Amino acid sequence: MNRYIETALSYDGPQVTFMEVCGTHTMAIARHGIRNLLPRAVRLISGPGCPVCVTAAADIDAVLALLDANPGLTLTTFGDMLRVPGSDRRTLERLRADGADVRVVYSVTAALALAREMPDREVAFLAVGFETTAPGTAAALTEALSTNVDNFRVISLHKLVPPALRQLLTTPGARIDGFLLPGHVCAVTGSRPFEFLPADFGIGGVVAGFEPTDILTAIGMLLAQWRAGAPAVEIQYRRIVSPDGNTAAQAALAEVFAPVASTWRGLGQIPASGLLPRPQFARYAVDLGEAAGAALEKAAPALAGADAGGCRCGDVLRGAIAPSDCPLYGRVCTPRSPVGPCMVSSEGACAASYRYRGVAV
After folding, report:
1. What is the pLDDT of residues 229-288, one digit of tens each?
2. Which of 140, 271, 283, 297 is at a distance of 20 to 30 A from 334, taking alpha carbons?
3. Domains of the chain, with CATH numbers?
4. 303-317 pLDDT, tens per residue?
């Protein structure tokens, strides 16, 4: 047993609260019963680490409105997105059942290939995900431009993690003593974009891998920082992550996308937290336009955490409540019949808690 794992398992100091901001960490913590292994003084909470979950109801509404207005459009996206409800409970799955051409793809490359196969039909890719998946979208847009694929479009709902953490820490009542930083995201970004945590907020962060020993080691590293009163950004996941990250992927993102304000479920609008194609790629960007504006107004309660139907996914994403604190959890809302995206996505905190409820606390 390494000394950091021993620290994590034997800690007996004041209560500390650490937040993970990666859906894969959320699932791993639940699957391996890590909360049960830790002393009561170490509290783990889930944050906005699931890209499907943080997609705002207003954006879902705008995409639904886009399909309503454009029956000739083929929309492609990842499977989880089909079941995420808008503010009126409609979903892409329901629109597909009603005849809309909505297709599941496993990568943006498949969406671009479909556009080539159907040159007489407009094919749009609904792009969600953090810095991990955004480089793939950037590569597809670059390829579409270089090969002159005129019927390919992208609805960019990509989001950037560091601005969301800053927003969380400036939210009144926030109590977070450290972050388990996302290994997949940091493989692209490196750890440097998170150095504002100790510099501006006096809070540490550790980039963690996904095996139980990785997570327990990272928790022990956070506890060591806490005990020493020396917050820092450290890397546990050194076999994949470096301080500088993947500079080629970063260059591709910078070439194709510009940071813009983006609306997050439960967190509201966050400056420079979204990605919009730059002018040279504007021909491929779908402008949701008036549909987005109307949807934003319609979904205003959801942005504040009061999602449709009494769902409290927004509160879960802020770490304000545990999934089981939602009155719908496990009763009205289950993975078979989800009310909100935290139960829809395989990386959602509610889905993880429910699936491993015999293991997780």
Report:
1. 999 999 999 999 999 999 999 999 999 999 999 999 999 999 999 999 999 999 999 987
2. 297
3. 1-303 (3.40.50.11740), 305-351 (no CATH)
4. 444 466 789 999 999
